[in-house]
UniProtKB/TrEMBL annotation:
Domain MoaB/Mog, first and last residues per copy: 172-312
Protein's name in the database: Molybdopterin molybdenumtransferase
Similarity comment: Belongs to the MoeA family.
Alphabetized InterPro entries for the sequence: MoaB/Mog-like_dom_sf, MoaB/Mog_dom, MoeA-like, MoeA_C_domain_IV, MoeA_C_domain_IV_sf, MoeA_linker/N, MoeA_linker/N_sf
PANTHER family (UniProt xref): GEPHYRIN (PTHR10192:SF5), MOLYBDOPTERIN BIOSYNTHESIS PROTEIN (PTHR10192)
Organism expressing this protein natively: Virgisporangium aliadipatigenens
Reactions the enzyme catalyzes: adenylyl-molybdopterin + molybdate = Mo-molybdopterin + AMP + H(+)
Amino acid sequence: MTPISWQDARAAVHAAGAKVAAGRPSVAVPLAEADGLTLAGPLVARTPLPAFPTSSIDGYAVRGAGPWKVTGRILAGRPAAPLTDDGTCVEIATGAMVPEGTTTILRVEDATVSALVEGTPRAPREWRDVGEECAAGEELLPAGTTVTPGVLGLAASCGYDELAVVPAPRVATIVFGDELLTAGDPGDGRVRDALGPQVPGWLRRLGAVPAPPVGPVPDTLEAHVDALRSAVETGADVICTTGGTMRGPVDHLHPALAALDAEYVVNQVAVRPGFPMLVAALPDGRFVAGLPGNPQSAIVALVSLVVPLLAGLTGRPLPVLSPVTLGAGVPGRGDYTHLALVAQDPAGTYSPLPHAGSSMLRGLSRAAGFAVIPPRSEGTSGATAALVPLP
C-alpha cells in the first residue's frame, strides 16, 4: 500500500468531516454557553451600531454659540430630550445618548461653569454617529468563525441573547493493548498507558467534548469490535483509538473496522513519525481515527488527522499553518514528510528538541508543536518552516 501524502491526508479528512457537518442541524445556545463553538451562520447586525448617537466624552452637549444655559443632565442608559433653543446645553456623560439638535460637545475639562457654561469645543463633534461601526443587516462575521470572548461581546452589543452554533463533536477514546498498565510503575514487560490520560485533554483543547478513556481493551478481535460498538452507542461523533494500526499478530483494528463495514478515508500517511495512522467512516456518518500506539506517533496522528477532521465537522476551514524560523537544522525523512518536535527559543526561532523518538514523551512535554519538513528536503538554520501547533 502506498501511503497518501501528508498534505492530501489533511485535506481528505477535512473534506469528509465537512460533508457530514453539512447535513447536521445547528443548535441555538445562550451566549454564556457558546464560547469555543463555531458559528453555524453569519453573525448579522440586528441594529446599527451605535443604535443612537453616543457621546464619547464627559462634558456638555451644546446648541449654537456660547455661552450656554444648562437645562438638564443626560446619563448613560436614559433617553435624551431634544435641544430646541440656541444657547442652551445639557450636561452629558460618556456613553449617553446625544440629544437631537446638538451642535457639538464641550469637554468637561475645557468648560468654565458659573451661571452659564463657557469654553471652546475642540472638534465639530465628539460623539459616535448611528451606524458608525456597522449598519443594520450588515454581516459582521462569517459562518465557521470560532466563538471567542470577543465574538460574544460583539454579539451581545448587537442584541443577541443566543447564537446558532455547530454542536461540539463528542469524541470517545479507546486504548488497545494487553501490555498497558493504568497504575503503578512499569516493569516485567508492561508499560504505563500514556495516551489514555492525555488524548482527552488534547481533544478538549480542540473544542471537542471528550468522554473518559476506555481500556486497555484486550488484544482480541471480539474485544475490539465490542469496544467500537459500545463507543458508537454512546453517541460519539469520532472514536479515537490508540494502537493496533499496523497488521501485526495482535493488531485487530483493521479487521474490526471491516466487521463494522467502515470505509477508509485515509489509511497510512507518508509522514514520520506515525505513518500507520488512519481515519475510517462508519456507515452512519461517524468516524474512527486510528492513532498509532507509540505515544509521540499518536500525537502526530492527532494533529495531522484529528485536528482537520474536527475542523471539518464543526464547519471551520482547514487550519492554516503559520511560518516560523528554524533556529537549528532539522533532518529530512526521505520521501516522507517529517514532523519534528520544536520549541521556541529566547531568540524567537524554533529549534528541534531532544528525546523526540516516536515512543518518547519528554520532548513532547516541552514542545510548541511540530516543524513541517517536506519530503526530499531538510530544514536548515534560519530557514522558514510551517508549524503545526500543539492545541
